[in-house]
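ok so dumb question maybe but i'm new to this and my supervisor (M.) told me to 'just get the structure for CRISPR-associated endonuclease Cas1' and walked off. so i did the thing. is this what she meant?? sequence i used:
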Amino acid sequence: MQTLYLSEQYSIVKREGEALRVEIPEDQQLGRQRQVVRVPLNVIERVVVQGEITLTASALACLLERRICTHFLSYSGRSQGALTPDPTRNASLRLAQYAAHTSIQHRFSLARTFVDGKLRNLRTQILRFNRSQREPTLTQAIERLRDAHRDLHGLSIPEYVDPLDRMHGMGQILGCEGQGSAAYWDCWGMLLNQPWEWHGRRRRPPPDPVNALLSYGYVILTSQVLSQLAIVGFDPYIGFLHQSSFGKPALALDLMEEFRPVIVDSVVLTVLNTKILNQQHFQREPGSVQLSKEGRKLFLTKLEERFSSEIQHPIFGYRVSYRRCIELQARLLAKALMGEIQHYIPFLVR
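this is what came out, is it supposed to look like this??
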């Protein structure tokens, strides 16, 4: 099962029996003739639509019937929303999710665990590079991450939240997360080979190729996590660490924290340091940078390879893909909320 990426502009997607028929128009500027591609529905796990693509009502209906999520991005790669199937019949899970969200003790504990997984995986990412380089700057970043992790576990669970608190009781946790992230991004440039420059993590809009790749990769990762949450039966818009607001998939953002360095950051470093992408694969506009059409294809190919690559699961011990790991984390979270296991266990790499 794979993700179907639709990015050929002005394409039309129709249902054709047990497949999607993708009609790609002629492009004289690129020297491309009209093409028709048939994609069997039984190999599609989710669909990502980027830019001006038309899906007919019958195509969308058959995707919903098969519980396949469709994610919509702008041409520049910014998330615009998702079309998800009706919630599963597991109403008990969603009730448990809402109850945990309204309990500051339960919410604080889960939020701390999400950040715990993120900080430990950030530290592992730098440790891997520092094994051969032994750079003092990287060693210092590792110590700063260790301090942030220690501070995180030194926090006391609040018994009461001031209604005027804009952080809803999560301020201390977010402070530790910010402390660790700052240590990580401050040294991230040392993980990159020349000629790539790094002046820190900047998001909206991304001012350089490295930030453009990170932002785009996180959008794709969010779509993957949101799909898995919908399959398990969660409400992806009610989170614990991230504040719930209109159109914001807060729970997807929570669960993806521990996967950011493991999947997206790793792929970005690979495509840049191995010269799979170069400066010609980016388009520069006033104040922002985005991937070119060819650059996007190359990056998505490597990202899909990462999602499909297998590792030995740190909890269960058998070999699974990273995509399957995301689903397993969603199911672990469901079991924790339903009281079937004592607490949620974050996904950690060695």
